[in-house]
Amino acid sequence: MAVNFGSKRIVVGAHYGLRDWLAQRVTAVLMALFTLVVVAQLIFSKGPIGYDLWAGVFSSQWMKALTFVIIVALLYHVWIGMRDIWMDYIKPVGIRLSLQVFSIVWLVGCAGWAVQVLWRV
Predict the structure, then answer these.
(1) How far is 94 from 101, CA to CA, in rounded Å?
(2) What does CATH list as the number for 17-120?
(3) Per-residue pLDDT tens for 67-76?
(4) Cβ count within 10 A of residue 64
């Protein structure tokens, strides 16, 4: 009779673990800090909050660049979350791949739209 000292661990999945956990936390902190910057600009501005004020907040080049970085962080944050949902709950590979491709196309489209809106201001 063979004695089994320990068992072989079967690891499944794509092995993203710590890297994705950390990426989600870092992108969340970046988005929270950006929100504080925008809210501070609104609080310390004069006059009613309308289109002119919003356009003024996002008109400077540094704010456009910062907003673009946050858009990229948001897209990466969403992609990690959606990919994990698809990998955890959708077992048929064809359906999971289709949903992942759809998610990528949707996120790229949202990024293009966000950049177009941002640079129109």
Answers:
(1) 11
(2) 1.20.1300.10
(3) 999 999 999 9
(4) 15
